[in-house]
TrEMBL record:
Annotated organism of origin: Anisodus acutangulus
Superkingdom assignment: Eukaryota
GO molecular function, one term: DNA-binding transcription factor activity, RNA polymerase II-specific
UniProt GO cellular component terms: RNA polymerase II transcription regulator complex
Name of this protein: Uncharacterized protein
InterPro entries given in the database record: MASH1/Ascl1a-like
Length: 134
């Protein structure tokens, strides 16, 4: 059992991580909206993907997963397939948002770990989502 102060500290840390994630996504959005070259957009990409190929990012934030997907409008997967992967890996989707900028689709999905004792392996989720979207 965590003390109330520990819970507050954990909540503060979680909020700071979310704010950091929002800032990263805002920077990515600006880069895409400006139509800058591939070299300047790569510094924001955690994987070797460029904006011309699908991009998958999975971040573990305590008992929450944040999944960011970027793909073209001619995507070869559905949002339901992404949700199915997350659920099969032991997470429950809390929210899913998307936006379209030019010819790119940006998805941000937040999922909560169903059983915190067992957890979710972010690398396994990342691998399965890469296989799905690429």
């Amino acid at each position: 059992m965590m003390s109330q102060q520990d819970q507050i500290d954990q909540a503060i840390t979680y909020i700071a991580q979310l704010k950091e994630g929002v800032e990263v996504l805002k920077r990515r959005k600006e880069v895409v909206a400006q139509g800058t070259g591939e070299s300047s957009s790569k510094k924001f990409m955690p994987t070797s993907c460029t904006l011309k190929t699908p991009m998958v990012e999975v971040r573990e934030l305590g008992s929450t997963l944040e999944v960011t997907l970027i793909s073209g409008l001619q995507k070869n997967f559905t949002l339901q397939e992404v949700i199915n992967v997350l659920e099969e890996e032991g997470a429950q989707v809390v929210s899913a948002n998307y936006s379209t900028i030019d010819d790119k689709l940006f998805y941000t999905i937040h999922a909560q770990v169903k059983t915190t004792r067992l957890g979710v392996d972010p690398s396994s989720v990342h691998l399965r989502l890469r296989q799905l979207v690429c």
